[in-house]
Structure formats: C-alpha cells, structure tokens
Amino acid sequence: MKKDMKNKILVLTLMIISMIIMLSSTNWFSMWMSVEINLISFITFLKINSNKLMMEKCMIYFLTQSLGSMIFLTSILISKLSVISFNTLNLTLFMSMMLKLGMSPFHIWMPEMMNKLSWNKMIIAITLQKINPMMIMSMMTHKSTLILMLITLSTITGAIMGINQTSMTKIMAFSSINHLGWMTLCMMNLNNLWTKYLLIYSMITTLFCITLNSMNMFYINQMFLNKMIISKILMSILMLNMAGLPPMPGFLIKWMTIESMLSLNNQIIPLVMTMSSIIILLFYMRMMSIIMLNSTITPKWKLQMMSNKKMKLLITMNLCTPLLMLI
C-alpha cells in the first residue's frame, strides 16, 4: 500500500513537472516533449493496481495519444519546410489537440476508455490531462468557420450522447466533451477566460467524483440514499453545480462565455450551445429525481457511507464554491 502511494506521488509530480515545462516553453518541440512526459506519467498512473481491463484502457489511451502527438510533430516538421500554409498548419495542430482531448468528432475513444474507471483516476483524466493540450490550443488563432463548427459539434455530441447512459463514468465523459466545447469557445476572444472555466470546472468535477467515490456509486440505479437527508442535499447541490443552474459557478462561467461571444457579434453559436446545456441539465435532473423522490426504497446492496465530518466538509466546500466567482 505504501509503495503504491509513493508511486502515485511520483507520477503526479511528473505530471506537474510536464505542466511547468509547458508554461515555460518557447518552441513547439519543448511543448511536444511536455505532452509526451504527461502521457507516459498518466499511463503509469493507470497501471498502478491495474487488471486486465485496465491494461486494455491503457492501450487505447496510448494509441490515441500517440497518434495525436505524431500528427502534431509531423505538422511542425512539414511547416519548417514551408510546404503548407500557416492556416493549414494552425488547423492541423488544433485538430491534433482535439484528438488528444477527445473532442468531437474524435471522441469515440474517450467514453470507452473512461468506462468503469476508478473515481481517483477519473479525476486526473478529466482535469489535469486537459491542461497541456489546452495551453497549446490557446496559442493558436481559431476564428475559422470550420473550427467554430467543430466546437459547436463537440457541445452537441456531449449533450445528446449522454442522455441514454446509465454509467456515471460515461456520463462524466460525455459531460467533459460538452465542457471542452465551452472551454475552447472561451479562447475566441484570445483572453484567459478559458483558464477560469477550467479552474471552476476542475473544482466542481473533483468534488462530484470524491462524493461518488465515498458513496461507492457507479450507476444511476445506485442513487437511492434511503433516510439520508444530508446526503441527498449534498448530491443535489453537486448536480445543480454540474448542470450549470444559477447561481452556481457552473452557470456563471457559461454566462461569461456567452457574453464574450456576443461581444464578437456572434449570436447563433451561443444559442446552440445554450440549448445543449439544457440537454445536459436534463440528465442531471433525472439523477436528482431518483435521489429526492425514492425515499422509501431499501437498496439490496450495502453502500459505503461517509463519516459525518467528511459529509459536513463536502457540503461546506460545495456551498462555498459560488464565492469563487466573487473573487
């Protein structure tokens, strides 16, 4: 157990080092190197306490990320020969990062890789693993019509494909695809709004995954919290936050994104993305209805309950998240 903990700390340290390298990079090659360090460290993290199913997920992740890195590096080498134009290079690099992040239409691998992943590994996959590719994307100009269409497609795909899912890990994967579209849209004004969005999203998602891990929940039909009023309130606050309902931070950051797009005289894309958020709200409200309305059902499995101190801490953290927007 102690050895596994030491390995996890070492791997997380390598991930942080790769992010520092990305922040201090001045050329494409050092950026590529930081992405590769991050890839190897995350695969090592997945292999800790792994089984046969986890090895398959490691292979899916490795092949997909290697393909994205190969496209990224090949585009840079070709650009040095002045064979392709700047706009073509920009589009190719942008799509290679979309493949790494799992954005639509390159999203097929992401839900399958994250399905039945442990919540601790899920937190790393949908928060820290987004930082390096999004830093590279923020350094490009992306106001072309094709890129705007791909961003809109990502939000629609994440919303629609998450409706009929019963696995919480798959729902989180499709919700991540939807939020990736919003974060990429924040880059349209060439400001740092996407960093605020990523920070708020990471905090909300981490709290949600920690709570589900503590309650040992992986499927929607496990959301029967019998005679646990505090747990129901906690889960309801978390889901309202994830769904982006006012006055939660998830709503306020989307509001800021829509305002930034309206300043560019673009009304159609914010309208479509707002409609996709309503669909996201649909399947989170479905989970809330199961929690709040099924109070008399006695589950046939034994859930791992949290201690009162841990429950109070999680509730306090969730109630304090709206204060982040004031800061």
UniProtKB/TrEMBL annotation:
In what way does this protein cross or attach to the membrane?
Answer: Multi-pass membrane protein
The reply on keyword Magnesium is no
Q: What class of enzyme is it?
A: translocase
Task: Enumerate the UniProt keywords alphabetically.
Answer: Electron transport, Membrane, Mitochondrion, Mitochondrion inner membrane, NAD, Respiratory chain, Translocase, Transmembrane, Transmembrane helix, Transport, Ubiquinone
Which spans are transmembrane here?
7-23, 29-46, 58-79, 91-110, 146-164, 197-221, 233-256, 268-285
Q: Please state the Enzyme Commission number of this protein.
A: 7.1.1.2
**Family label:** Belongs to the complex I subunit 2 family.
Known function: Core subunit of the mitochondrial membrane respiratory chain NADH dehydrogenase (Complex I) which catalyzes electron transfer from NADH through the respiratory chain, using ubiquinone as an electron acceptor. Essential for the catalytic activity and assembly of complex I.
Q: Protein name, please?
A: NADH-ubiquinone oxidoreductase chain 2
Q: Which organism is it from?
A: Phatnoma laciniatum
Give the gene name: ND2
